[in-house]
């Protein structure tokens, strides 16, 4: 009788400790967390005159036409999209 009462008490203590640990863990996991949002400083860049701007125009028959900056007629190039991937890389 004493042995079964002791085992019931031991099982009850283990269940109680396990319940407390589970409750604390679940409360910690469900608490909201925040992150700091870092936004870059706003700069006034004149994108009309940027020389490194690449513009790509998709044409028919898997062709592309690309040019840098605003020089559409002076420094443009045309290539097949599937044959020459190095042109855009």
Largest sheet: spatial strand order? 1-2-3
> Overall pLDDT, averaged?
79
Poorly predicted segments: none
- Write down the overall geometry: elongated
The assigned structural class equals: alpha+beta
Element order: H for helix, E for strand: HEEE
Ends apart, CA distance between termini? 82 Å
How many domains? The number is 2
**Beta-strand residue percentage:** 15-25%
- The percent of residues in helical segments reads 25-40%
Q: What is the number of helical segments per DSSP (H or I, 4+ residues)?
A: 1
Rg calculated over all Cα atoms: 34 Å
- Let me know the largest β-sheet: 3 strands, antiparallel
Total number of strands: 3
What does this structure look like?
- The protein is α+β, with helices and mostly antiparallel strands and 89 residues long.
- 33% of the residues lie in helices and 17% in strands.
- The protein contains 1 helix and 3 strands.
- It has one helix spanning 2-30, and strands spanning 54-58, 63-68, 77-80.
- A 3-stranded antiparallel sheet has the order 1-2-3, with no helix packed on it.
- The longest helix has 29 residues, at 2-30.
- The chain starts with a helix and ends in a 9-residue tail after the last strand.
């Amino acid at each position: 009788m004493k042995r079964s009462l002791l085992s019931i008490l031991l099982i009850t203590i283990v269940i109680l400790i396990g319940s407390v640990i589970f409750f604390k863990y679940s409360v910690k996991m469900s608490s909201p967390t925040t992150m700091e949002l870092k936004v870059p400083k706003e700069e006034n860049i004149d994108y009309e005159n940027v020389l490194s701007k690449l513009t790509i125009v998709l044409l028919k028959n898997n062709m592309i036409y690309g040019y840098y900056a605003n020089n559409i007629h002076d420094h443009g190039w045309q290539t097949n999209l599937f044959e020459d991937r190095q042109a855009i890389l």
